[in-house]
Amino acid sequence: MLAIEDVIIEAPADGEIVDPLSWFDSPGPFELEIGSGKGGFLISRATSNPHIRMLGIEWANKFFKYIADRIARREIENVHVMRTDAKFFVMNHLPPECIDVLHLYHPDPWPKARHHKRRLMQPDFVEAALKALKPSARWLVQSDHEEYFHEMRDLLDARTELSQIPWDKRASTPGPEWEGTNFEIKYVREGREIYRAAFVRSEPRP
Ligand SMILES: C[S@@+](CC[C@H](N)C(=O)[O-])C[C@H]1O[C@@H](n2cnc3c(N)ncnc32)[C@H](O)[C@@H]1O
User: Fold this and answer.
1) Which helix (H) or strand (E) holds 147?
2) Can you give the pTM of this predicted structure?
């Protein structure tokens, strides 16, 4: 079993810019998952792809501790977890061009109109996240909430630095197979539709 302290990355101090690869023993493509929930996707992706380096960010303490415990028990060394507000983290603590793949799956939809301002995907967040993507990085979004999904897709589609690519298992998520997120697995069982979009950062479109 790994020590929990070796699995957890503390939220950075005010003004600190992190160096994601310094959290790992060796370099590799860096992938960030925002809102990892119970960590099903994070852990399966890191386990099936030992060459990648992953950070999962989860705000809810209960889930954060659950993920850290799962990683420690399974002694997975290419994945860490941080408890913080991912929006604040992305906007204030990431260096430019550090992410190879950004995973955002089933972010809270805040369905009531008066709560839409709480949604993670807003233009200021998109702006900051784009700066943190490497050239050719991919940004994958998925939701069971049709309206929020279309809002997210439109926000990304409006950015000339991004081009939509097919949601192809190999192109979007290289690895032996796509491992569903906890929400995805539950909703697929219930027969609910899942909406997905994949983008690649590229030269700005004219
Ligand atoms: C609907 S759940 C989806 C969990 C997982 N992605 C899945 O598909 O199974 C959304 C998760 O995002 C977390 N979350 C919401 N806002 C967050 C934020 N600003 N920073 C980090 N985590 C956040 C919630 O605590 C929750 O665990």
Assistant:
1) helix 146-157
2) 0.96
